[in-house]
Write a structure and sequence with these properties.
About 30% of the residues lie in helices and about 35% in strands. It has about 425 residues and is α+β, with helices and mostly antiparallel strands. It has a six-stranded antiparallel barrel. A four-stranded antiparallel β-sheet has the order 4-13-9-6, with no helix packed on it. The longest helix is centred in the first third of the chain and has 41 residues.
Length: about 425
């Protein structure tokens, strides 16, 4: 009708006409899709191959262990000797340390030593201006000579008075007075001799020599310095002119527990105990010596007692105040059964080894003792027994084993009893 809005109808698809087919993707997209599919398939195949290979290797190793036995290294228990040591940290201490101070006043004229020099007893070290003390010596000598003349004169008078008194030419009192005058003059001469000796001693203080053999430290005074007798400062007390430490021989002071003191003292009564000094890593031996003395009391704060060992130190490897590891050989055990320390395994408080007999490992409970240098003394097995030293993570009692001469990689964790 006029004025009416007509609705456009959407034509319905004809069921007899087939739908239009979609266009295939471009060739580039198809190529990328194929490449991605191939990469994913290759990755899955590689992971599957590695998994199967691991399973096959594990199965082969398991079958080899169950059929041929566990491959182990082994060692033979032997009868021998082993030392019983006490270990401690010690301090290298000189036998003598001389801190030389000035005993005379004056200017330092000369310093004869070099820093760090090895000096002998009597070697010159320092010279102080001696003129003042030389004048005192000269004065004392003059006084002595004068009084010796007075004494000689009084003795001559005494002889004259003795002869005169014998002839009754003088009274006895005059003769006796002259005897006392002689005694007084003799006393004066002795006093003068003492004064001269004192002046000579003071003069000797101007020429300082080494009192001991040892090594000189750093130079503390220079020529031209003024020094005073018993000079002190506010920091270190008495001022030293030079310090000498004896280094040959030298000692090491170290503590041991009071529980070990009785055994050490008992062994000291029969022989000299050997002591060995090691570096800070306790791997390299520095020097060998002997135990010298034991302190006279126990330190109540630490429960230890100090010992002193002496070392020849011919190569100067021990240095004063150096910290070292010290090993004191208390005694030596003989005719004991020794096995490698690594052969002993633990399961709580129980210690055991795997003894190999006829290709079979047998767990044997043992009582471990002293260990040193990779060896340990044990009780519970006989000398000549072959014991396993590796592969403990795979070993168990009555397991078949194959002893190999080549090192076998082993888990460092200790085995436990089944």
């Amino acid at each position: 009708m006029p004025g009416d809005r007509t609705l456009e109808e959407t034509p319905s698809p004809d069921p007899d006409v087939p739908p239009r087919a979609e266009l295939p993707p471009p060739p580039r997209k198809r190529l990328l899709a194929w490449i991605g599919t191939l990469l994913a398939a290759a990755a899955i195949g590689y992971l599957t191959f590695r998994f199967l290979q691991h399973q096959r290797n594990t199965g082969q190793a398991s079958r080899a262990g169950s059929v041929g036995g566990v491959v182990v290294n082994a060692a033979t228990a032997k009868r021998g000797r082993i030392g019983v040591y006490l270990d401690a940290i010690g301090t290298v201490t000189p036998v003598y340390t001389a801190s030389i101070t000035a005993q005379a006043n004056g200017i330092v004229n000369a310093v004869h030593y070099r820093e760090g020099q090895i000096v002998k007893k009597g070697d010159p070290l320092i010279d102080i201006d001696p003129r003042f003390y030389q004048a005192q010596v000269l004065q004392a000598q003059g006084t002595l000579e004068r009084d010796k003349g007075v004494l000689a004169q009084s003795r001559m008078d005494l002889e004259r008075f003795r002869e005169a008194w014998a002839r009754n030419a003088i009274p006895r009192q005059q003769f006796e007075d002259q005897e006392k005058i002689v005694l007084q003059n003799e006393g004066q001469v002795k006093s003068d001799e003492g004064a001269l000796a004192f002046a000579l001693v003071q003069l000797s203080y101007t020429h300082i020599t080494a009192p001991i053999d040892g090594r000189v430290g750093l130079r503390l005074v220079d020529p031209g310095n003024v020094v005073s007798a018993n000079q002190v400062n506010q920091v270190t007390g008495t001022t030293s002119l030079v310090v000498i430490t004896q280094i040959r021989p030298i000692t090491i002071i170290f503590p041991i527990a009071q529980d070990d003191l009785s055994e050490v003292r008992t062994e000291m009564r029969h022989r000299s105990l050997a002591a060995y000094a090691y570096d800070r890593t306790a791997q390299t031996r520095i020097a060998s010596g002997t135990l010298l003395a034991v302190d006279n009391q126990v330190d109540t704060t630490t429960g230890t007692v100090k010992l002193r060992a002496q070392f020849a130190n011919a190569d100067d490897r021990l240095f004063p105040n150096q910290f070292v590891n010290i090993r004191l050989l208390v005694k030596t055990l003989t005719n004991v059964t020794l096995v490698p320390s690594g052969a002993i395994q633990h399961n709580g408080p129980i210690a055991f080894v795997y003894a190999i007999e006829n290709g079979v490992a047998h767990m044997r409970t043992v009582k471990p003792g002293v260990a040193d240098a990779g060896k340990a003394a044990v009780e519970g097995i006989r000398p000549g027994t072959l014991v396993a030293t590796s592969s403990f993570e795979r070993l168990q009692d009555k397991a078949p084993v194959i002893v190999s001469a080549k090192p076998v990689a082993s888990n460092p964790a200790e085995s436990t009893a089944p």
